[in-house]
Amino acid sequence: MATEAVESLSSSLSTTTISPGRRPYTGSCHCGHTKYITYLTLPPPIISANPPSPSSTIRIRKCNCSTCQKMSYFHVRLMDEPNDFLLLSPLNPTDGGLSDYTCFKGAIHWYFCSKCGVRCFAFAGEGVVREVEVEGKVQEVWTADPEKWGKGKVAYLSVNAATLDNNQEGLDLTEWTEKGWISYIDWKNNADEARMGKPHEGGMY
């Protein structure tokens, strides 16, 4: 009876729908010069190529434009950028802390580590160094400026999911593909079209 009860419980747990929960995850470049914490709400509250609003769900994306393809960039767009992305090191990416690459109109900064070349995040907008509580301790971090974010200027922050650290509870990138959480964007043709399940022309899974 005890064995049957355990098997029944295991079966129940494996089929239970997990409620979305906001949790912190660490990420870094290969050499460790760039370190960050990002808060992800997983599973995504809404799984859609075109969610009703940017703040309604995290958006896991792959784009077919030449920039994203050449960088092999795996986008995660956050629900609340100023509070969901904390750059721990370097403290100021815009003041020589990270190398920068821009292209086309130059609006987005594709920051990368000058030591190992890894790109952890892309950013456009106003950033600020401020004090926040991290793991129970108050410390200085760099974030998008909550006072200016999205107010009349370009505001863009995308975390490169490939730089999230391995072996973190609740984080399995294979699950994102297997459960169909990734949307595929067509910027190669400037169409800004999104769909689930299959990359657009020139894109990749």
Descriptors:
205 residues; seven-stranded mixed sheet; 32% strand; alpha+beta; Metal Binding Protein, Guanine Nucleotide Exchange Factor, Chain A; disordered N terminus; three-stranded antiparallel sheet; single chain; 5 helices
Written description of the protein model:
This protein has helices at residues 2-15, 66-71, 81-84, 93-97, 173-178; strands at residues 21-28, 35-42, 59-63, 75-77, 85-89, 109-110, 121-124, 127-134, 137-144, 156-160, 182-186, 193-196. The chain has 205 residues and is of the alpha+beta class. The chain is built from five helices and twelve strands. The chain has one domain (22-196): Beta Complex (Metal Binding Protein, Guanine Nucleotide Exchange Factor, Chain A), CATH 2.170.150.
